[in-house]
UniProtKB/TrEMBL annotation:
Gene Ontology cellular-component annotations: cytoplasm
Entry GO MF terms: L-phosphoserine phosphatase activity; magnesium ion binding
Keyword Hydrolase (UniProt): yes
Annotated TM spans: none
Residue ranges, annotated region (Disordered): 1-40, 113-143
EC number: 3.1.3.3
Residue positions of the active site: D260 (nucleophile), D262 (proton donor)
Species of provenance: Emericellopsis cladophorae
Family in the record: Belongs to the HAD-like hydrolase superfamily. SerB family.
Pathway assignment: Amino-acid biosynthesis; L-serine biosynthesis; L-serine from 3-phospho-D-glycerate: step 3/3
GO biological process, alphabetically ordered: L-serine biosynthetic process
Protein name (record): phosphoserine phosphatase
């Protein structure tokens, strides 16, 4: 019994590795330390979206397939990522059409009172002229037809001076708030938007906004929306150009771009340069320049004013056109723009109310496909002061645009026209997109889009191209 008390149990046999349990590694066979299992910090969708049902009633356990349901409601986890699963920029539902509006906001880097040639007045300039102080009991005009129908509005505060000389976030917010005030289509109750900075993320000068849906055309057509006073005041406050276009494949893929020449492809008016060479009478250049300005502003009929100005040039040598080549000042960005258009396979044309010798030469220099302008009569090497054939005025420019489009097999919806004067209005209206370039006030109000910058390359932004893509096209 004592033996039982001192030895309650037999010592267990010492465990040993049999030959079948041994491996080729001594360390693997005898190590006592095992590293702890690493906690997986990456959660899959099955751990993010869990079954939140805590009721006591048992329910059949079904495999979770990633789609929340009543049995598998989602758990919201703050991961720092926000994504709204909506379809404002997707293909429209079956049986409907895309209803999106593209707003391209371009910050104007220079003073809005400066024209491309320094002699044109902007919208702001015209308004300031109407506010000039007058003597007591004096009216600005005695012609009732020319009397303004409304008093000039108060000048808008320049907000870009406060929030930054670029398209700031507050500028975009202000524009979206403005657009939300316009009536939406009956089947829509919310405005969706997205944006792209086309040139720079930090301080963008060009921002493209996509608005879905577009304001209801039953209340306001796109043409009237472009002229709306709220849009105009926004442009003045933030020093931007607002260009509104319907989203379509034609917006992104034009096939023909038609340009005016004077004050568009070049910064001067050729007929003014010709007049400046005449020294007798000494005031001829000033007189011709005044007629040109009034004709471009729409105050004078272009055809009659052109014949009057050409008559004043009687006796000039025909070699004057060659002499003027060296002093023509090409608008900044034009060579780069033409190169980009050619690489995209887009045809180009210049329709000038000037003179064919200079227009044809400039078209060859830039690589423009079509060139049309006025032909002057030359006898014994001198200008007779007469014009041969139909004058390339506003009607002729429109007809030439249609003629070139038909010749190239291009639909008018894929034609873009760019000009600055009243004689370009018919051409701008006929094209799928008419662009006013540093234009007269009347042209700016009538055109589909307006650019008041320093480089004509800005035209490419209206097609949705980014600065990076423009650089690739012009290398």
């Amino acid at each position: 019994m004592a033996n039982n008390a001192t030895s309650p149990r037999q010592d267990a046999a010492r465990p040993q590795l049999s030959s079948s349990m041994r491996s080729s590694s001594y360390l693997n066979d005898h190590q006592q330390y095992r590293p702890p299992r690493q906690v997986d910090t990456h959660y899959g969708i099955d751990t993010v979206v869990e079954d939140m049902n805590t009721s006591g009633s048992p329910k059949p356990v079904l495999p979770f397939r990633g789609i929340p349901s009543e049995d598998n409601p989602p758990t919201v986890v703050d991961s720092g990522v926000t994504h709204s699963y909506t379809h404002p920029n997707c293909a429209p539902p079956t049986g409907t059409n895309t209803n999106r509006l593209i707003a391209t906001l371009i910050y104007k880097q220079r003073s809005s009172t400066a024209g491309a040639a320094g002699s044109r007045s902007s919208l702001k300039g015209v308004k300031s002229e109407s506010n000039e102080s007058l003597p007591a009991n004096m009216a600005p005009t005695t012609d009732m037809d020319a009397f303004p129908l409304e008093p000039p509005t108060q000048e808008s505060e320049k907000l870009d001076y406060i929030y930054g000389s670029y398209i700031s976030p507050l500028c975009i917010t202000s524009f979206l708030h403005l657009m939300s005030d316009f009536p939406m289509p009956d089947d829509s109750d919310e405005l969706y938007s997205s944006h792209r900075c086309l040139d720079n993320q930090e301080t963008p000068r060009v921002v493209e906004l996509t608005l879905s849906p577009a304001p209801s055309p039953k209340y306001l057509s796109l043409k009237d929306l472009r002229k709306h006073e709220m849009i105009y005041r926004f442009e003045q406050e933030w020093n931007v150009d607002v260009n509104l276009q319907r989203e379509s494949v034609w917006r992104r893929h034009p096939r023909l771009v038609v340009f005016d020449m004077d004050s568009t492809l070049i910064t001067q008016e050729v007929i003014d340069l010709l007049a400046a060479t005449v020294k007798d009478p000494p005031d001829l250049a000033e007189k011709v320049a005044d007629i040109t300005h009034r004709a471009m502003s729409g105050e004078l009929e272009f055809d009659a004013s052109f014949r009057e100005r050409v008559a004043l040039l009687t006796g000039l040598p025909a070699t004057i056109f060659e002499d003027l080549r060296s002093i023509l000042n090409i608008t900044p960005g034009v060579p780069k723009l033409i190169k980009a258009l050619k690489r995209l396979g887009i045809k180009t044309a210049v329709l000038s109310g000037g003179f064919l010798p200079l227009t044809s030469w400039l078209a060859r220099e830039l690589g423009i496909d079509h060139a049309h302008a006025n032909e002057v009569v030359i006898v014994d090497g001198k200008l007779t002061g007469e014009v041969q054939g139909t004058i390339v005025g506003k009607e002729r420019k429109r007809d030439l645009l249609v003629q070139i489009a038909e010749q190239e097999g291009i639909d008018l919806s894929q034609v873009v026209a760019v000009g600055d004067g009243a004689n370009d209005l018919f051409m701008l209206d006929k094209a799928g997109l008419g662009v006013a370039w540093n234009a007269k006030p009347r042209v700016q109000m009538e055109a589909d889009a307006r650019l008041n910058g320093e480089s004509l390359v800005d035209l490419l932004y209206l097609f949705g191209l980014t600065a990076e893509e423009v650089e690739q096209l012009t290398q």
